[in-house]
Every structure is written in structure tokens, then in C-alpha cells.
Amino acid sequence: MNGELTAGRLSIHDAAQSVTQIKSNISKVLIGQDDIVENVLTVLFAGGHVLLEGVPGLGKTLLVRALAKSLNVSFSRVQFTPDLMPSDVVGHSLYDMKSGEFTVKKGPAFTNILLADEINRAPAKTQSALLEVMQEQQITLDGESMAISSPFMVLATQNPLDQEGTYPLPEAELDRFMMKVELGFPSVESELALLKLNTQAISNEAKVDDLEAVLNADQIAEIKELCAGILVDEQVAKYAVEIVRQSRTWQGVLHGAGLRASINIIKAAKVIALMNSRDYIIPDDVKYVAPNILRHRMILSAELELEGVDHAQVITSLLASIEAPRS
For residues 203-236, b (16+ Cβ closer than 10 Å) or e, as one string? Predict the structure, then answer.
């Protein structure tokens, strides 16, 4: 059965090759972050949103720009600041003196790929402007609901170190993000390659504009349809549910993951299966995607934090305690 599933004219093997081509495209300007790129593409084809967290200079914004250039879709960027208003994100109505009617001025959220840069710099009121569009892919202005064309994906960034002048993301908004992906420092070899690339006449920042689009909106929709049709064995589904349920009762966890977590784990695992040219998911797919899906949905007790135990350690222990299905 491997690779036989098709959506339209696209096979799983073809789709996997297209995803590999996007990875290769992005790697021309973003070096040493292959796992991050894979996670972002997983979220894209699973139909979710991603929160990118890392210190300045690791390429969060560069990654989003390279992704947008690799896809023949619309792209908007919003720099979140303390004085940003909800209308600056979703839009508002204007009264036209000539016609005597109200006209809608659409905000940057009316796009396919939305970069919410430093999202925690804006107050909760402005952050909440994204709740409806992230969940329902529509925006309501003056009582009129307007659909956003597919694909639609929010990529938000935040800096974990500088907390002055920031506003923590509400739990309801955090839960809207399929994954929270943490960017770390690249290897010595990658950092050296980045140094050389950025000290040339044309830096990798400038090279983003030269990237060619690999997929259009229709092709993305085909790949998403293929992912939705990936087979899920009952035992593997139960494995995903057990992981999420254990997160709610794990010692030292004040609040575990909700229902969206298990749904997102299976959706993301399907994309990983497709990337590996399989038409079925295996327990390792579930185990691979689970940490980034659980991380921002678990609140640890003060005792664990004082002991220096972080989310990664808790999730590693949790996954190790649950036996994966063997068939």
C-alpha cells in the first residue's frame, strides 16, 4: 500500500518529493535548522498554526519569509507592539462621505501566511483578535463574517529572554497553536557557514527574495487532502490519547493538555508519515510530534520549576512511561 494513496493527480511519493523540495529551498538561506523547518511544514500541511520561540538572531523571521517565498500564496507581516490595536490586525469599517456608506478596510490577517512578529509584545486584547481567524478561518467585522482563503497559517514569534514590556499569551490562544517550536543555537559547522554567508556581498537575508515558489494553493490543498487520508490504526490512536491523558495526571503538572492535543498529534503524525512516503502512521510518528504539541499545553508546578525540571524533561519521562503499540 505504501505510496499508493492519491489526491487528484498527486501521489504520496510525489507529495513527499515536493515537501523535500521546499525544505531544500528554505535551506538555501536558513542553515542548521532542518528540524525546525520540518516542524513548520508539518504544521502547514496539518492545517495548524505554529509559535516559534527563540532568542534574537536565530532566523525566526527569516524562516517565515523563506517559507512564504517557497509557496505561491499571499504573505503579510504584523509587528506586534504595545500600542497595536485589534483593528490593525483584522481591519475595520470606514464611513465613506461621498457614498454615505460604510466600507470595509481589510487588515493584514486577510492573507494566506501571516507572520505575527513578537506576538507577546501586544496586550491580550490585540492578541485575542486572532482567536476567531485561527480557529474558524474567518473574520467578523461589524457583524459580517468574511472567510479567509486557504491555506491560512499563523506563524507567531516570541523571545523567551526579554520579558520586560511583554504580555503572556492567554491559555485559549496558546491552545490554538498546533505546535510551539523552540529554536536553539546551530552546530559549530552551521554557525561557521552562516558567518560566511552573511559576510558576502549578498547576504542570506537578501537571497530570500530570489527563492522560487515550489507549490501553489491548489497543490497545498492536494497535499493536505492526502495527509487527511493517511491510515490510522486503532492502537496507534489509543496511544496518542493515552499520552495526552497522562499529561493531565502526571506528578508535578498543574494543568495538562486538552482535547486539541490528541487531535493535533494524529494530524501532525499523518504529515510525518507522508513525508516518509507512507500511507499509514506508526507509533514513532506520534512520539516524534508529541513534544512540540504538548509543551505549551502543560503548566508545571512551582516545585518542579524550583527543582530545575523543565517541560522537555517531563515530556520525555511521560513518553518513556507509556508502552507504544508494537503492531
Answer: ebeebbeebeebbeeebbebbbbbbeebebeeeb
Residue 3 scores a pLDDT above 80: no
Q: Tens digit of pLDDT for each residue in 238-262?
A: 999 999 999 999 999 999 999 999 9
Tell me the three-class secondary structure of the chain, residue by residue. CCCCCEECCEEHHHHHHHHHHHHHHHHCCCCCCHHHHHHHHHHHHHCCCEEEECCCCCCHHHHHHHHHHHEECCEEEEECCCCCCHHHHHEEEEEECCCCEEEEEECCCCCCEEEEECHHHCCHHHHHHHHHHHHHCEEEECCEEEECCCCCEEEEEECCCCCCCCCCCCHHHHCCCCEEEECCCCCHHHHHHHHHHHCCCCCHHHHHHHCCCCEEHHHHHHHHHHHHCCECCHHHHHHHHHHHHHHHHCCCEEECCCHHHHHHHHHHHHHHHHHCCCCECCHHHHHHHHHHHHHHHCEECHHHHHCCCCHHHHHHHHHHHCCCCCC
Q: What pTM value is reported for the model?
A: 0.89
Band of pLDDT at residue 205, cut at 50, 70 and 90: low
CA dihedral angle for residue 13, residue 18, residue 24, residue 27, rounded to 10 degrees: -120
C-alpha cell at 120: 507577546
Of 6 and 22, the one with more pLDDT: 22
> Is the pLDDT at 1 greater than 50, yes or no?
no
What whole-number distance in Å separates Cα of residue 41 and Cα of residue 64?
11
In which band, very low, low, confident or very high, does the pLDDT at 196 lie, cut at 50, 70 and 90?
Answer: confident
Name the band, by pLDDT with cuts 50, 70 and 90, for residue 101.
confident
- The answer on pLDDT for 145 being more than 70 is yes
